[in-house]
Write a structure and sequence with these properties.
This protein is mostly helical. Among the domains are: about 150 residues, no CATH class; about 100 residues. The chain has nine helices and four strands; from the N terminus they run βααααααββααβα. The strands form two sheets. It has a two-stranded antiparallel ribbon with strand order 1-4. Strands 2-3 form a two-stranded antiparallel ribbon. β2 and β3 form a beta hairpin. α3 runs antiparallel to α4, α6 runs antiparallel to α7 and α8 runs antiparallel to α9. The protein is globular, with a radius of gyration of 32 Å. The N and C termini lie far apart (about 120 Å).
């Protein structure tokens, strides 16, 4: 006796279907359309043929690029840019380790100045070469490849000729370094030439050129005192800004660039730098107290701008640190960011306030 087939009418009972049975399995039944309450055509239950399709909206995100070794990318759970700057308890670094590394770097600088003044040039040259290497490597995340060889050799030549010939030696070696980088890049062809050549000019001006102003400060007879005044003031800018930001920071200075920097932190930097500036200029360099106060305020501003400048570069590249050489700090370039622009301002102000004496 034949089985009665299910009726395919609106509102008519239908036979149960086994939607879990694999397609093609013996004894499986076909899905039966069900009635449409609105009175329209019958609708079919979900199957592999009439399953509702979900349209995925593409997410606008940058193409993933493999990061070079040592460059720290921004974490996925990074704080949003609108986060209030410098909240207490959120320092963003291992403070004891950062202090230990900072003290070690300071001890190396003081030892080089105390033992033999030109020995500071070796410390500065090592810092410049490492910073150039970190910066060129970080630029790879944006597929920018400035030529390393002329930048490294040119940096050494700029430091040496600045020590021997002063500002004239710095001007000549800077132009030769830029020219060498432009010519060297020709061998890689025209694709990306303007991009890579522009990056080479930027690195030359950003790292070795600004660092050579410290060499100019070192040349006078009281050059060691000038270097100590310069570095100590920049360090106090970082310390004063950090302390004031953690304790009182509520108003972010630039949320999209550096969320943890606050206007209260800047006030702490200015106050700390003015105190140290007065002590160093008045006591160590025989200047006036008001000159020291003006010098300290200027260094606080340039150190903060240098930090923000490097932060915006790292934001643009999508990295957290320039490297991982210094535990608690990141890369060496992450410590040079405040020193580099401040070196030029310190040299100009100290030269005007306390004219140097060359032997």
């Amino acid at each position: 006796m034949l089985e009665e087939k299910p009726q395919n009418r609106v509102g008519a009972p239908t036979a149960p279907t086994d939607t879990t049975s694999p397609v093609g399995t013996t004894g499986s039944t076909r899905p039966v359309p069900t009635g449409n309450p609105a009175g329209g055509p019958p609708t079919h239950p979900a199957s592999i043929h009439n399953r509702a399709r979900t349209v995925e909206v593409p997410v606008d995100r940058p193409t993933s690029i493999a990061e070079p070794p040592g460059v720290q990318p921004l974490p996925a759970d990074a704080a949003p840019a609108a986060e209030v700057a410098a909240e207490p308890g959120r320092t963003g670094r291992d403070l004891p380790l950062a202090i230990a590394v900072g003290v070690g770097l300071g001890a190396a600088i003081i030892a080089s100045l105390a033992v033999y003044r030109p020995a500071f040039l070796a410390v500065l040259a090592a810092a410049v070469l490492i910073s150039v290497w970190e910066l060129t490597r970080a630029l790879r995340s944006a597929r920018v490849r400035p030529p390393k060889v002329p930048l490294v050799l040119g940096s050494v030549a700029m430091i040496a000729l600045t020590w021997l010939s002063g500002p004239s030696g710095l001007a000549v070696t800077t132009m030769l370094t830029v020219l060498a980088a432009l010519v060297w890049r020709l061998s890689d062809g025209p694709v990306g030439y303007f991009r890579d050549a522009s990056a080479a000019v930027l690195i030359t001006a950003y790292v070795p050129l600004l660092a050579c102003f410290a060499v100019l400060m070192l040349r006078p007879d009281d050059g060691a005192a000038r270097i100590v005044a310069f570095i100590l003031t920049v360090v106090c800018s970082d310390v004063g800004g950090y302390a004031a930001g953690v304790l009182f920071g509520k108003h972010p200075m630039s949320p999209t660039v550096s969320p943890k920097k606050s206007w209260e932190g800047l006030c702490g930097s200015v106050l700390a730098c003015m105190i140290v500036g007065v002590l160093m200029v008045a006591l160590a360099l025989d200047g006036s107290w008001w000159q020291g106060a003006l010098y300290g305020a200027a260094i606080a501003v340039t150190a903060t701008l240098g930090d923000l400048g490097e932060s915006i570069v790292k934001r643009d590249l999508g990295i957290k640190d320039m490297g991982s050489l210094l535990p608690g700090h990141g890369g060496l370039m992450d410590r040079m960011d405040s020193l580099l622009p401040s070196a030029a301002v310190a040299y100009l102000l100290l030269t005007v306030f306390v004219p140097p004496v060359l032997s």
